[in-house]
Amino acid sequence: MDKPVNQAYTPVLSLYEAKKENLIPILLAFQRKFSYLSRDMMQSVSVYVGVPESSVYNIATFYSQFRLEPPGIHKVHVCRGTACHVMGAERLLRNIEKRLGIKAGETTPDNEISLDTINCAGICGLAPTLEVDGKVYTRLDGSSLNRILGKKKK
């Protein structure tokens, strides 16, 4: 038997008709509001639109914009666009991963920092670029990275 819809999610669910065609828009709305999709959220969406929970999970894991764990307090995004790649974004990413002890798509164990990549920051002439908590840093090298991350992770 399905669990009932968690009433805490009613404000989000009520924005959409309870149809399976609305599954992705509903998941996107949850992602915007809560920054991730918990199991309880996915169960409630499953019941609401009338699809198996496994279908909701399959969609949530297929699309990279969905997170299944809460993000860290600080969000770090490394651009992996062509210009950034040519200018050293992969080296930058590996440096950050080593420094934080996590891989892209993960959050530090203390929930302080989440590390992700983006396909293109759209400022190719200033590559490589990094976004930290919405602030964009450009033309990065090892010393500038230490200054930026030093503020976030002691």
Alpha carbon gap, first and last residue: 48 Å
* Total count of helical runs of at least 4 residues: 7
- The number of strands is 5
Mean pLDDT: 91
Widest beta sheet: strand line-up = 2-3-1-4-5
Portion in strands: 5-15%
Give the SSE order as H and E letters. HHHHEHHEEEEH
The helicity comes to 40-55%
**Main sheet makeup:** 5 strands, mixed
Weakly predicted, low-confidence segments: none
Q: Which radius of gyration do the C-alpha atoms yield?
A: 18 Å
What's the multimeric state?
Answer: single chain
Q: Structural class, judged by helices and strands?
A: alpha+beta
Shape: elongated
Structural notes for this entry:
It is built from 7 helices and 5 strands. It has helices at residues 10-13, 23-34, 39-49, 53-62, 82-86, 89-100, 142-152; strands at 74-79, 106-107, 113-118, 130-132, 135-137. Strands 2-3-1-4-5 form a 5-stranded mixed sheet, covered by helices on one side. The mean pLDDT is 91.
